[in-house]
TrEMBL record:
Its EC number is 6.3.5.-. The keyword Transferase applies. Allows the formation of correctly charged Asn-tRNA(Asn) or Gln-tRNA(Gln) through the transamidation of misacylated Asp-tRNA(Asn) or Glu-tRNA(Gln) in organisms which lack either or both of asparaginyl-tRNA or glutaminyl-tRNA synthetases. The reaction takes place in the presence of glutamine and ATP through an activated phospho-Asp-tRNA(Asn) or phospho-Glu-tRNA(Gln). It comes from Sphingomonas chungangi. The lineage of its organism: Bacteria, Pseudomonadati, Pseudomonadota, Alphaproteobacteria, Sphingomonadales. Residues 343-490 form the Asn/Gln amidotransferase domain. Signal peptide: none annotated. This is Aspartyl/glutamyl-tRNA(Asn/Gln) amidotransferase subunit B.
Amino acid sequence: MTESTYRIQGGTGEWEVVIGLEVHAQVTSQSKLFSGAATAFGAEPNSQVSLIDAAMPGMLPVPNAECIRQAVRTGMAINAPINRWSRFDRKNYFYADLPQGYQISQLYHPLVGEGSIEIEPEGAEPKTIGIERIHVEQDAGKLMHDQHPTRSYVDLNRSGVALMEIVSKPDMRSPAEAGAYVKKLRSILRYVGSCDGNMEQGSMRADVNVSVRKPGDPFGTRTETKNVNSIRFVMATIEIEARRQVDLIEDGGTVVQETRLFDPDGNGGKGVTRSMRSKEDAHDYRYFPDPDLLPLELDEAFLEEARASLPELPDAKRKRYEGDLGLTAYNADVLTADVETARWFEAMLAEGAAPKPASNWVTSELFGALNRLGKDIGESPVSPKQAAELNKLVADGTLSGTLAKQVFEVMLETGDDPAKIVEERGLRQTSDTGAIEAEIAKVMDANPDKVAEYRGGKDKLFGFFVGQTMRAMAGKANPAVVNELLKKALDV
């Protein structure tokens, strides 16, 4: 594992940034952590609120077994020990979007212990990032300050939604490493199915802890920038906050342990972090065991079921794609980065497509078309079955690569199957040697000077003759047959 070379240049020399992330991931579940209220995104304000979520007197929370199961599966996916005995605690603080006046969380006895994930930052060696713990907690509601000129409104739809707080160790040393960590963590969560990872909808967000130090010195004082909701913003937060801390220290100031927010529009659109409040320690929240909830005790059958339900994870899938399917490291990495892409590709293989050409086609032709259309792979106008059929038509010689591109464009526009398009539009590749030889003769008759030059030693003119022949046959000639027949005709 190589050390990060990311450094911030200050007036007194180089500074190193130390980064830890607390990722809040909304658990995939039809109902909340302690109530049966729905969790659908985009519902009307306060339409998904039970009496428990609203903290009505006498209401008792009941743990949602599915939320616990999903957190356990996530812990197993990062090779972390699952604590068979864990406990919920009350984190006491007052805020207008927190009806109970406390948040039910897990401080002293979390559900999941220490784990790790492997990251591969762009242009750097792979690195292992430690994960301190995963604990389960309930989300707060949401304050809306833009609905009325003088009042703030409260939407409690998110109140009580189950979150996994995934706390990393301070092992990251650059914005690129932090970006790679969030990307990899999101990929794992999506594979497991425990969180959809939609950062733009708030179902995954990061609190970014940043400190700076001279390389080799002890850790400096950290700040925590709350609720950063995109990978790009996580990386920007680190860069901006680290620079602020270096400038502050070198000007004779002191970094204060505090909570900050990231404003991407600040500083003329370059982004800025702003102070929110001094950072509280755990004792400031007066944590104590929740008296309404018994400790969670998990039996072996529950753990075995959770373990057996895990899918093949991205690292294992990537190794299999390289080893068993013979894909390039690049193609294997691209195809396994997101679970939807991997599923689409495997559905294509299940329809009989050959792995290597299929991987090349997906990463180039399909991704290029989807990017052009502004769609993700789940919205592809072409199905895996149709894609496999198109690849088979190339493999059996029905279509050349050029013709396949034409057929694919028609498939994108019409949704028709490739075989139908080939028949209706007469796009079938020809290997008819007689027809090809006739066109070669015409091309040679029309270009006697170039024939003489080629036979005089200008081998590079061969490409000219190939191009002219293919153009004469409207791109439908089999290129291998064209090359073979041309060679024979020209080398006389």
